[in-house]
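In response to reviewer comment 3 from the previous cycle, which asked for concrete evidence that the modeling workflow produces usable outputs, we include below a single protein chain processed end to end. The sequence was submitted unchanged, and the resulting structure tokens are shown without manual editing.
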Amino acid sequence: MRLLPIFLFVGLSLTAQAPKDTPYVPTAEERAEIQSKLAELDRQISTLRDTKHGTLLADVEVYSKAASWIMRFPEEFFNKNYLGHTLFVLDRGLQRARQLAAGNPEWTHKSGHIVHAYRSRVDGSLQPYAVVVPKDLPRGKPARLDVVLHGRGATLNEISFIQAHENPKNAPAYNDRIELHVFGRTNNAYRWSGETDVFEALASVESRYKIDPARTVLRGFSMGGAGTWHMGLHHPSRWAAMEAGAGFSETRNYASLTDLPPYQAETLTIYDAVEYSANAFNLPIVGYGGELDRQLQASTNIKERLVKEGLKDLRAMFLIGPKTEHKWHPDSKAESDAFLDAHLHGPPSPRKQLRFVTFTTRYNQCDWLTIDALDNHYQRADVTAGKGPGGVWLQTHNVAYLSLSEPAQVSIDGQQIPGAVQHMEKRKGKWVSSSPLTGLRKRHGLQGPIDDAFMDSFLCVRPSNGPDPRLERFSQEFAKWLRGDIRIAADTEVTNDHIRDHHLILFGTPENNALIRKVAGKLPIQWSKSHIRVGLRNFDARTHTLAMIYPNPLNPERYVVLNSGHTFGEKEFRGTNALLFPRLGDWAVLDANGNTVAAGLFDDFWQLH
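The workflow returned the following structure tokens.
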């Protein structure tokens, strides 16, 4: 494969549109019609559930979820069209239910736009996605897959997503590939559970269709462009190539942020894609923006950082649509398509050299290399690696522990480690062979901050004496903005299976929540009836509460979180997606009004700094 230098060229997107109309209020008769069809669909689903139809049942149930959710949030009847769309979606759901009951689910072997769904491990919710299958695409051989991330849509919900992909007028844009259109739990720039949604939808597609993993391309525009910069550069070995149009690639300037406290400023490195620019070394990339589009800055940031990095032989193209605002210029799109096609023909070249950058063990894997632990989280960690006849060589910075996919002779930072090595650890500045990483240390999926707990399966635990206002608010906001109902149990209902399978999100105090009482003595912050002690600082427990994340003392492979859902809320969800960054770090002391009086990040051994 020929490596291309970086070019700058002047040369189909979804843009976010604010609702122009006030929400439509269905009449009593219209609501009754929706409820009648929804009840009939739910009756049929109940019958089908008894006959165990597996994953295909989710493809029916999601039509019920769409109608239920818009009735639950009636402000999402953004205009009168949504009434017709809802009835249309229910009719399609009923049609699918009848087909499944008859043993002939026609949507499983049709072409064009097809809606599917899966049940998310995060919260057990049904989440839709759509595929586009060209009519003449051979079904027997592995197909190219383009994963498409949509832009922000102010009127996007399950109803509008399904209706758009059930429209037969939307012909496939390409005849040589399958497209996966991700719902992404609506508008979150594919962060947190929105990021998990991309991979869960991808796994569902791979289980249903024959996909060539060496030709899986990530694409997006606007918010989808921001998501592509994020997911492409954070997971560089997952994609054969990426194409990012517009969007944003850093937070401070895009969201006009100033004077952030350190525990917020440091965690911007989790998502600021520009900081991960060097990972473009590992895959072909296209960056695009219109000449008249403010969001051109996203790809400009990446290009300028790559120049600063001094990387050579990049497979990268940067395009500017001449006199173009927030959309693709057709000539630029043709250039991008040709560039991507050129890098997907033939078998992929084995990656003999890697260049990987991260700031957190949440994003720690690049092909055959895994960074298991850092010296210091939220500071830049680098690995340059290569394979040759003599084994593997590595040059590292801010890396404490790493692994290879298979044992090899290893030279690392000028040191030769004896024997064949797969796991290695830095001890007092010297690298030695080691066993897989264990113990209390920030590692992949157990590195914080608080918001990280909501990327995987979690269970909220309320005090047995009644509801908790923080939990109530989190439940409402998660349903509205992340499209799922959180699992909730009382502290007296939590089982060993819950502790094994879920991050536990505990609300209350040591006095009214038995689970908090059970773990409180094993946390690095002391919490008693009278005080909360953070190092040498004391806070009155009668007027303050503790929010934090920590490896669960009852199951160190999962988190325990105290008194916090996502650390941002409705205001941030309604604003720019760049605002969905952590607000409380790993721990915070909150006053009676919910104001932060102290907060911070634990060190890489989960201890107070």
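The chain has 13 helices and 27 strands. We consider this sufficient to address the reviewer's concern, and the full set will be provided in the supplementary archive.
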